[in-house]
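Database export, one record per block. Field names are fixed; values are copied verbatim from the stored entry.
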Amino acid sequence: LHQFEALGPLPGFVAAWLESLLPFLPLVAILIANVNIYGFLEGFLLSWFGVVTGAFTVFWFVRRFGGRVRQFVERKSPRSTRLIHWLERHGFMPIFLLSCFPFTPSFLVNIVSGLSKVPFHTFIIATVLGKGVMILIVSFAGHDLFNLFQQPWKLVLIVSVFGILAVTGRKIEAKYFK
């Protein structure tokens, strides 16, 4: 891990940014690696800035070039059209809540937000705040991995919080992505 620290902050930022573009990359592992390589504060900030910048990149790209995609989606999938219209009506809160959970497919949230007419500033604020909460929780959990194994109650607490987040995230996701 310390070999990457010698390269400066760029690898930490790029890894978090790339995860927003390539959703198969393991975000939780990237966040934990960043806080262990760069320290808690710098790793948290690099991860947050990278993830948020990646979300903005996806949103902007879809908003800029997705007009035809939205028309195609509206013709082919009435359910998706309802989701897009629902997101336009409710805006901030679903984007914020879905951004708070580490197990939500944020790539899809960014794409649907880009296809919708959600104002850019609403998407920015909801994403910055939601991703901040999520990255803070994951960073706190993964900052001192060796200490977690020496104090098992911390490990149980963190696993419980992740379990609650996963279950809650799945319920919200099921409600919003029907």
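Remark 1: The CA atoms of residues 19 and 27 lie 6 Å apart.
Remark 2: The chain has eleven helices and no strands.
End of record.
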